[in-house]
Amino acid sequence: MKKFFKFGCLGIIALIVLGIIIAVATSGGDDSSNAPAKVDGSTGSAKKEKAQTTFKLGDTIQLGDHKVTVTKLEKSAGGEFETPKGGNEFVIVHLTIENGGKDQISYNPYDFQLKNSQGNIVDPGFITIDQDTALESGELAAGGKVQGTISFEAPQNDSDLDLIFTPSFWSDKKITINLN
Asked: Model's pTM, two decimal places?
């Protein structure tokens, strides 16, 4: 009985020590996912102390290891084979994605959504208007860069369009780029 009690107590103590080790290991350390987004504007490099989540056309925004710059915005009424729904137009976003980290990162056009002035948030469309420049999904090595376009359908002449970038399905971190 004494042996059982001795081993039972040792087992309980071992579980407590293991629990403390796990708690310390998961609560401490560098959590870069909580780091504020940084912006490098055209007027020079400015790091914001407060987490900025809304940016404008031309800003270079870093979220995690992803650096995103919307370089140009085009609107189109479509072409011979493809036209938007009545009252809508195609919005073509030209952008650059860079890997600002040391590890490989993924990119995907479905990391982006467009919000219009009515609050409607849509995913990129299967639009061939930008087929020669369309951003595809892939991987970027450290320091790598890719350029491409992402197309959406939005109400004509909407003056309040925002591009929303969420680089990870598993995170709620996102940035918003005002396209007007």
From this structure: 0.69
Look-up of token digits 């970038």: 165
- At 157 the three-state DSSP class reads coil
The domains of the chain are located at 1-30, 32-178
Contact between residue 106 and residue 156 where contact means Cβ atoms under 8 Å apart: no
Distance CA 85, CA 12 (A): 67
Whether the Cβ atoms of residue 97 and residue 145 lie closer than 8 Å to each other? yes
| Burial environment of residue 72 by CB neighbours within 10 A (0 to 12, 13 to 18, 19 or more) | exposed
The architecture that CATH gives domain 32-178 is Sandwich (2.60)
For residue 62, what are the β-bridge partners? 38, 67
99: left (phi over 0), alpha (psi -120 to 50) or beta: beta
The predicted-structure confidence for 4-50, as pLDDT tens digits, reads as follows 445 555 566 665 655 565 554 544 433 443 333 444 444 444 444 34
Residues 20 and 38: their CA atoms lie apart, in Å, by 35
